[in-house]
Every structure is written in C-alpha cells, then in structure tokens.
Design a protein that fits this description.
The protein is mainly α. Helix content is 69%, strand content 0%. It has two domains: 51 residues, no CATH class; 229 residues, MetI-like fold. Helix 4 packs antiparallel against helix 11, helix 11 packs antiparallel against helix 14 and helix 13 runs antiparallel to helix 14. The radius of gyration is 24 Å and the shape is globular. Pfam families: BPD_transp_1.
Length: 293
C-alpha cells in the first residue's frame, strides 16, 4: 500500500524538480549555444548575443579548421595517447590497487601513506620537467603517459572497491586451487566492471584533455595532440602572431567566435560519444569505490 504524501513532501519534490530543471538548463543551454554558433553565419553570430538555432547553416568554421590534415593528424595522436595511456594506467592502477586491498600485505599502511602524501604535496612543474628530461622522454609520447600513469585518487577508489568484495569469494577460489593472479583475473575483475568502467573514463578524459604536459614536453608540432593544435587555431583566428604555416595561406579565416565554437565541438564530441556506454557503471563504481569499511 502506497502511503499518500504530505503537502510538505510534495512541495519538497516540486522544489527538487524545479532546481534540477534549472541546473540542467544552465548546463545544456551553453553547449547548445556553442554548437549552434559553430554552424551559424558570420552575420548571425555578430548580431545575436545568444543563439540556440541558426536560421542559416554554414560549415565555414569547420572548413577552416579542417583545411589541412593538421586536425586529423592531431586527432589520431590524441586517440592513440588516450587508448594506450588508459590501458597502461588501468593495468598499473589495477595491479597496485589489488595488492593494497590485501589485508595481509606487509607495509600496506606505509605505502598508502606515501600514496596519500602525493595527493597533498608534489615536486611541482620544474622538478617534474627535469626528471622527464633526464629520462630522455622529451619529444616522446611516453612523456605524456608515464608522469601521470597512476592517479592517487583513482587508486584509492579502486582499492576500496576491491576491499569491499566478500572475502569468502577469495577463500572459496583458494580452496579450488586458484592462486592470487587467478583470483584477480577470474574472480575480482569480472565483479568489478563498475569501478573499472568509471576509472577508465577518468583516465580517458584526462589523457584526451592533455594540454600542459604536451606544451612542456613536445617540441615537434607534428606530435601535438588535438588540444594544443586547437589552441593554435584559436590564436591564429584571433589574429595574434602564431606559426600558421600548416594552414592554407589563401584561406580566409571566418570570425574568431565561430572558429572557437567549432573547436570546442571538435574537442568535446569524441568524449561525449564514449560517455553513454559507460554511464550505467559510472554512479555505481564511484559510489561503491568511495565507501571505506
């Protein structure tokens, strides 16, 4: 039997619906404005301060940023860094998180203290650059992957998730003759799809948005990921001095505003296409991984 809600409860529900609707609109409308602006004409963009549906569609901004193969090459670079970096980080994070989730591991508290310490303090940009340079990683894609291979926050979430799995499963597997590696790959990982999907998304977004490390460690423009190349395009479209040799000199640049919007769309759409496939695991993985018994 469903109990009738009180007036206070109904008002609270109405308030929640209104609040969530406002938050959703504040989040979605600017992005719709950016997409619409990237397809709008020069006249419409300059006349309207806020645009949701362009009256006349044009692809001038996209023709401009795709006028050479620079964008496609940088997209492939970003995709490669994202895939390889995510797989590498997930392997290292999973191995370390599983080890730290074992309560019989000697020195577990000391290692966890060092992990948490890195969340509060780090060497900074210049010492990290000197270490990367000393390792000979300048102008190497590994310079974008190795320094950020294991994220302490992601490691703790995954360790907590592993730690909350029933201990009886491992004991039953050991009785059946399974070793630690077998327990990890045949018992623990199949039960950890939510946290694996969540942490994979965290890492993938981080590698896709690689920007500062690419500027610091990659001197060869042909190795730049999409974020750095798009920055160069925005600067070029704004009329500032920048190396525009990669672009057609006879091409007339569209207004700065439409180029910026097209750049944002190009850099955001790939991540948005991946998110729906992982969304069903996202809340569960983050919630269960954040619980500490």
């Amino acid at each position: 039997m469903v109990q009738d809600k009180t007036w206070g409860s109904r008002l609270f529900d109405i308030f929640n619906y209104i609040l969530l609707t406002v938050v959703a609109l504040v989040t979605i409308l600017p992005f719709i404005h950016v997409i619409a602006g990237s397809f709008a004409t020069v006249k419409e963009v300059t006349q309207k301060s806020f645009l949701l549906i362009p009256t006349e569609f044009t692809l001038d901004a996209y023709r401009y940023i795709f006028s050479t193969d620079t964008i496609l090459r940088s997209l492939f670079v970003s995709i490669g860094i994202t895939i390889i970096g995510t797989l590498f980080s997930m392997f290292l994070t999973t191995m370390m998180a599983y080890g730290l989730s074992r309560r019989d591991l000697d020195g577990r508290r000391v290692i966890m203290f060092m992990v948490v310490f890195t969340m509060l303090f780090n060497g900074g940009m210049i010492p990290t650059f000197l270490v990367v340079k000393a390792m000979g990683l300048i102008d190497s894609y590994m310079a974008l992957i190795l320094p950020t291979a294991i994220n302490a926050f992601n490691l703790i979430i995954m360790r907590n998730f592993f730690q909350n799995l029933p201990a009886g499963l491992e004991e039953a597997a050991k009785i059946d003759g399974c070793n630690d590696i077998g327990i990890l790959f045949r018992i623990v990982l199949p039960l950890s799809k939510p946290v694996l999907a969540t942490i994979s998304l965290f890492y993938a977004v981080t590698y896709w948005n690689t920007y500062m490390n690419a500027i610091l460690y990659l001197n060869d423009p042909t190795k730049w990921p999409i974020q750095v190349v798009l920055r160069q395009i925005v600067i070029l479209a704004s009329g500032m001095s920048v190396d525009g040799a990669a672009f057609d000199p006879d091409f007339v640049a569209p207004p700065e505003q439409t180029v910026k919007m097209a750049v944002i769309v190009v850099a955001t759409v790939p991540v948005l296409l991946v998110y729906p496939f992982l969304q069903k695991y996202f809340a569960k993985g983050a919630l269960l991984g954040s619980i500490k018994d």
